Predict the structure of Multiple sugar transport system ATP-binding protein.
Amino acid sequence: MGSLKIENVKKSFGPVEVLKGIDLDVKDGEFVVFVGPSGCGKSTLLRIIAGLEDASSGDVLIDGQKVTNAPPSKRGIAMVFQTYALYPHLTVRDNMSLGLKQAGTPAAEIDQRIAASSAMLSLEPYLKRRPAELSGGQRQRVAIGRALVREPKLFLFDEPLSNLDAALRVNTRLEIAQLHNRLKSTMIYVTHDQVEAMTLADRIVVLNAGRVEQVGAPMELYNKPANLFVAGFIGSPK
Ligand code: ADP
Ligand code: MG
């Protein structure tokens, strides 16, 4: 299970309203991509779903349960950040297991989950290394592995490929797509890259200045953009 409902979520920082009433329904197992220009509120919305930021008003529901005021650890989510956010002093294995240990997961279960996740992401050779001894692509795979071992209902990705070079971007994108095919988990993925959005999404949510411009399947948006903004954003190559 991993459905998500966002009800009239608004967010202001001081006098500036950066989310102006967002409504969205995501089905269990869906891959939904938020796209929009820099500063339109994508990360803020993702952080509100994760519980890393409070909404000014509105509600977030996961599997029908209101989690608006629940801490991140109680939401069944795991997030992958653009900057990987790994602990530099911990090994890959310890980076992956830390959250599980904190949650009181038994050691044998941790071992089993790390074995399965590192096999899925080809991380076995790196488990004893520290992040500084890895390439950018390997670090991002570790960050994905750390999310994976938590077996979340909902995966949140915030521009996970932005710090990778072009070839690695394609590989890592394919790995994320494969992961979704295998796990059938709900994934919410933020990017400002149209190609990532078009290739990964079941549905794309186009955001602009804190509002949803259009929601639809990639080809639906491509063929029938609701307005010039969507047409320009989805239609124009980079
Ligand atoms: P995106 O991820 O789409 O680039 P963000 O969600 O990061 O956009 O930011 C949306 C707007 O909110 C931006 O104008 C940004 O400067 C502002 N903002 C984000 N976080 C904060 C914060 N903690 N304090 C003040 N303003 C913020
Ligand atoms: Mg952002």
User: Anything to note?
Assistant: The chain is about 35% helix and 25% strand. Residues 13, 18, 36, 38-44 surround adenosine-5'-diphosphate (ligand 1) (CB under 6 Å).
